[in-house]
């Protein structure tokens, strides 16, 4: 479900510039759909840590995950500003959308739902 959430958001991110050129209704529709895809991510991350982390480590792992998300957001703001200044505002959406799609491929190859399903353990 995490993969579907990130993939859906990423694909919609790639189409955001096109939606923006289509007008306010299109951009609102894309943002609403992105919110629906993103809405499943956080509960699923908590479920993932419930399966993977021992009870004594869950709080720390969840904290590191959420801090990482915040740090990533700050980095994205800086990178986005550089892209807007050096390329175009649309490039921000294309690059981050493609990055999200590549992240999904890596996630599918590396992450399993639980330790029981991971053959490398």
Automatic annotation (TrEMBL):
One Pfam family linked to the record: MFS_1
Gene Ontology MF term list: transmembrane transporter activity
Organism of provenance: Culex pipiens
Any single biological process term in GO: monoatomic anion transport
Gene3D superfamilies in the record: MFS general substrate transporter like domains (1.20.1250.20)
Subcellular location: Membrane
InterPro entries, A to Z: MFS, MFS_dom, MFS_Na/Anion_cotransporter, MFS_trans_sf
Primary location group: membrane
Residue ranges of the TM segments: 62-80, 92-111
GO cellular component: membrane
Major facilitator superfamily (MFS) profile domain sequence ranges: 1-121
Protein name: Sialin
Keyword terms: Membrane, Transmembrane, Transmembrane helix
Superkingdom of source: Eukaryota
Membrane topology of the entry: Multi-pass membrane protein
